[in-house]
Amino acid sequence: MTLIPHKNETLVAPITALQALSRLSLVTQPAGLSQSHKSPDILFVGHIGKSSFRISRKVNYPQNYLPIIKGKIEGSSRGCIIFIKYRLFFSSILFFTFWTGMTMLIGLFFIFFPKEYGYAIIAFSSGVANYVVTLLNFNKQVKLSRAALDEALNMSA
Question: This protein's superkingdom (predicted)?
């Protein structure tokens, strides 16, 4: 188990790798384009390659816990296998580690120097709360991103 939230999964789709890539391409806007193109059909922002993709769910508001989805698609005899990794964006990881680490250092300071155990408990509790909020929100955003990915791949068709 790592301290930074992440999730890996493998999907087996009854469509070919080429179909999966083309379905993702239809609902993905390149990251460099301006936001003036507001089509309701666009579900993701990112890059689709020949056998891989790097996308994130398109949102209209700031979302600190939104995962970036890195995927690799391999063909098989009965469709394709999609290897997916959900990770926090680098800036979110920096924010998360800075504040979790800072609250832990403040807690240690209050334990060893002024010996104010009440303040140390408050600092440690803040660090744990930051960690729990990050995990819960990341998992919620992974669930929403997975639903959008299922919709984009339309695997029931």
Answer: Bacteria
